[in-house]
Amino acid sequence: DSTLRLHVRVARLGTRFVLLLAEDRTEAHRLDEVRRDFVANISHELKTPIASVSLLAEALDQAADEPEQVRRFAGRLSVEATRLAHITSEVIELSRLQARDALRPDRLVRVDKVIAAAVDQNRVVAGGKQVEVAVRASTKAEVYGDQALLIVAVHNLIANAIAYSNPGGRVGVGAKVDGDVVEIAVTDQGIGIEADELERVFERFYRVDQARSRNTGGSGLGLSIVKHTVQNHGGDVRVWSQPGRGSTFMIRLPRAEAAIEPGSDDGRAT
Ligand code: ADP
């Protein structure tokens, strides 16, 4: 009787082990696919600017004795070089984020400081496009995390809001505490996003309108970086949009006080 029980237990454990192995292999397979896609995407994305650079170099060579042409081609070369540098640094950033497990962040980061830095970094571009960026509400609440990464995430949302606004448009940035969560929202009155595209904008290299995005210098990686950063911080990112009316992107992060001192008197209703 006890041998039978033992057999059953061993069989059960065996099944569980095989299932675990199978799950592991599926996950490994999925990651492998993700990696292969990523490399294919990168090669594709880099091909266009690299081709432009070699064409422009050739054109420069042929226009050697026409200073006006030389200046024009040199200017375009510089634009393409900047784009290549931008894509490369985003690819590196994203692969770093993807390679890392969920952060076990031990640093307290003040949300209002993240927002101020991200807004500041976008000031010049906003001014150039005559888009007004205003911080409507802020909070001194803290989250656990990596300040530099969080600034990049909020920066990307603001940069997009400006890029997809019409000249003269307004971008609002706000943050507030909602229970155990800190919400950071970036709202624009720009071109908006169609409902069936909303899910996809967080995918790597995904752009709603390839040509238009290319003109705005986008790589299609910005939101993917936002998503991974926020997920690594134990949060999520949401989007609401109306084509022609504008969009709101919201980052939600676990609030630090709530994480370390459950039930402590921190001014919240219990
Ligand atoms: P990109 O570098 O092209 O901006 P992102 O990953 O940041 O890449 O965004 C992906 C796509 O989502 C963009 O190409 C754009 O089509 C769309 N998008 C992102 N933010 C906005 C926004 N605020 N308003 C309208 N469309 C947006």
From TrEMBL:
It comes from Agromyces fucosus. GO terms for molecular function: phosphoprotein phosphatase activity; phosphorelay sensor kinase activity. The chain holds residues 117 to 386 of 395 of the full protein. Residues 41-257 form the Histidine kinase domain. It is found in: Cell membrane. This is Sensor-like histidine kinase SenX3. Residues 256-270 are annotated as: Disordered. The keyword Magnesium does not apply. Coiled coil: none annotated. It catalyses: ATP + protein L-histidine = ADP + protein N-phospho-L-histidine. One of its GO terms (biological process) is cellular response to phosphate starvation. Keywords: Kinase, Membrane, Phosphoprotein, Transferase, Transmembrane, Transmembrane helix, Two-component regulatory system. GO terms for cellular component: plasma membrane.
